[in-house]
Design a protein that fits this description.
Layout lengths: L2 E5 L3 E4 L4 H14 L2 E4 L10 H14 L7 E7 L6 H9 L3 E6 L19 H10 L3 E3 L13 H16 L5 E3 L5 H9 L4 E5 L1 H5 L23 H11 L6 E3 L8 H4 L14 H11 L6 H13 L7 E5 L3 E2 L19 E2 L2 E5 L2
Helix pairs in contact: 3-4
Bound molecules: N-carbamoyl-L-aspartate and zinc ion.
């Protein structure tokens, strides 16, 4: 196969940042994806309808309009989130979903939720509205090993919450474990999961190959090989519960290569190329379109995109770094050759 054509995909989990960084990165996402669920973990976080509207305007002002990109906004949940505000945002078409960050779980999550029980009123309202809850599924308990935090989150938080709110629509974001794959597979139809290109590509060894490798560090952190294999199986299975979400999370080189380096991998420049690599290796290129372009809209109850895109089997060299106005950023697959190349929208 030398060409692959698919319905234009969407990215159901991305960090577009703000200010100069937003301007530098947004077109990389908009080039490949028609829509994206934009994460609200700015400083300060996007907690109100007004803040989300304003952020959406900044994104639309920064993106190349010719790319035809629609940002879908999310509300950042805090202990003080107000059910009426969320409902208003959802009904007005400003909030597509709300995001749960356990406080201190990841980048800019200090204002996150300290105890999910504090959200009872909010979750009850979201359940009635059919408004999706997106979860960063890691406990923050320091006595729990960092590699066990996702699996522990399922037992301590996610499963009990779904018992209390059985109709809640939930996306378990950027899953990294066999336990998460099993949980989602066995859950109700209303529970889905996103899978990143990087968790499909490498296991935790990548962070320590010949020395410490900050550009392979993200959260949730990559796990053992058995988990990566479970993710690859889930993504390529054709099961509509699993869909594309890059978790593209750009940080400048100076912020990654530091004594306390930031978590996040910037995969936007090669997102589809990277997913195509995995699907080809798994002999499942025929399943890529469903994962990338059909399962997400189905979960979010949105129309499937009307345009198509093409990938060509052309060896592509990924730059070691991108020189951008706010500072250099190292992309995923830096310095590597990829077999597929995104060739744009089919005209
Ligand atoms: C994200 C970021 O930098 O905002 N980092 C990451 O490693 N994925 C936050 C997140 O999604 O956890
Ligand atoms: Zn993320």
């Amino acid at each position: 196969m030398t060409e692959l054509e698919l319905i234009r995909p969407d990215d159901w989990h991305v960090h577009l940042r703000d200010g100069e960084l937003l301007k530098a990165v947004v077109d990389h996402t908009a080039r490949q994806f028609a829509r994206a669920i934009v994460m609200p973990n700015l400083k300060p976080p996007v907690t109100t309808v007004a803040a989300a509207r304003a952020y959406r305007e900044r994104i639309l002002a920064a993106v190349d309009p010719a790319l035809g990109f629609t940002p879908l906004m999310t509300a950042y949940l805090t202990d003080d989130s107000d059910a009426d505000e969320l409902e208003r945002g959802f009904r007005d078409g400003v909030f597509t979903a709300a995001k749960l960050y356990p406080a201190h779980a990841t980048t800019n999550s200090a204002a996150g939720v300290t105890d999910i029980r504090r959200l009872d009123r909010v979750l009850d309202r979201m359940q009635s509205l059919g408004m999706p809850l997106l979860v960063h599924g890691e406990v923050v308990d320091h006595s729990v090993d960092v590699f066990d935090r996702e699996a522990t989150f399922i037992d301590r938080v996610l499963a009990p919450t779904l018992e209390r709110f059985p109709g809640l629509r939930v996306v378990f974001e950027h899953i990294t474990t066999r336990q998460a794959v099993d949980f989602v597979t066995n859950a109700r139809e209303t529970v889905g999961a996103t899978i990143t290109p990087h968790h499909l590509e490498f296991n935790r060894n990548a962070m320590f190959e010949g020395g410490i490798r900050p550009h392979f560090y993200c959260l949730p952190v990559a796990k053992r090989e058995v988990h990566r294999l479970a993710l690859r199986k889930a993504a390529t299975s054709g099961n509509p519960k699993f869909f594309l979400g890059t978790d593209s999370a750009p940080h400048r080189v100076v912020d990654k290569e530091a004594a306390c380096g930031c978590a996040g991998i910037w995969n936007a420049p090669v997102a589809l190329e990277s997913y195509a690599k995995t699907f080809e290796e798994e002999g499942a290129l025929d399943k890529l379109e469903a994962f990338a372009s059909l399962h997400g809209p189905r979960f979010y109850r949105l129309p499937v995109n009307g345009t198509r895109v093409r990938l060509s089997r052309t060896s592509t060299h990924v730059p070691e770094r991108y020189t951008l106005a706010p500072g250099d950023i190292v992309p995923f697959h830096a310095g590597k050759q990829l077999a597929w190349r995104y060739a744009g929208v089919v005209r």
